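User: Structure with zinc ion, tokens only please.
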Amino acid sequence: MSKAGTVKRPFILAIRAVFGGLFLLLGVAGFFAFAAGFADYPVVEPAPDAKPWIRGAYHVHTTRSDGNGTPAKVARAAKAAGLDFVVLTDHNDFKPPAATWVDGVLLIPGVEISTNAGHLTAFGMQRPIEGVTPWGPPEQAVAEVEAAGGTAVLAHPVQTKNPWKDEATAHQVPGFELYSADTFFRQALRSPVSRLLPAVGASLVNPVHGVMLLAVPEPRPTERFLELARERKRIALCGHDAHGVPAYEDIFNALGMELPPDVLSGPLSQNAREAAAQVTQALASGRALCVFRALGAPEGFTLEGFDTTTREAPVGTVLTVRLPEHTPGTLEVRVWGDGRLQPDGQHIELTGPGAVQVEVWAHAPGRFFGHEWRPWLVPSPVRVVPRPPGI
Ligand SMILES: [Zn+2]
Ligand SMILES: [Zn+2]
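Assistant:
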């Protein structure tokens, strides 16, 4: 064999291996695309005649930082997904434009501040944030958000890339992105074959299903959140961390923050500034729910038995979950922390003191043709306080 032949042969083999690998990946992605055609949403049908909740997106980037859509494009996507509001949180955008109604969608100014301990999102500021330098100390960012009348949130606090690393401020900040689309995506990167590939394949046919396949919660964020929730009232949020890939509309259709109508004093004001105050106060109250919207609308759900302002209840209290009408076997109440789910699956006895996290999970379309349990409705936690003396 000539020398040229010996060089050529490994080269051809390598090319064949690369193409073979690509075809195999395409084939596997094609399989998941095919399976996605059978994914049936929603799991829970909308409740007829229910007073609609107010629906929104939290933690969204635009062309004001590294997102690929203008605020107007984001508003159009939100409208198409049936949302009422979007909280824009561009990176270190300390002077965002004032709240505005665009196409029937309320754009609310917020920010995501880079600190040397991680990322902090914030909303509800009464004035621009001053004196904060990107990548500065976290306590400075937290203090300035508070001074401006805003609510601070630990963004994607438990993940490998940009976790929240400062213990002192973690205890101070009221909000916590319990579920973060960014964290889900980074988890999927660690399991490229079992998690990322099915999601990419499914996205070819059903993009919302593709996003939903990434929503596989790990225990660590919940454990960390509950640890913090024992000390004070905490707000659970789901952060889209939307940048335009996946498309804004698809990620808005997959998850969001939803407000029960009774949380607001009345319908959203036509005055954008007033409407923004209504929404941000409701988000800060902890009464909004993180909802995996593809699985169904939350109308008909309530969690009862605690003080809705303080989100506290004494040890021994029994909380009640009311679920919307659904096919038996498709929903499940799950409980973490200082509470015990009773055998009827809808009452939780508080065993604290501490904190309890109650969520409704749904039997959602899975990667193959079957189903996987996924979070659906995620309220903020309830603090379990000692029983008052003498009772
Ligand atoms: Zn971030
Ligand atoms: Zn972000």
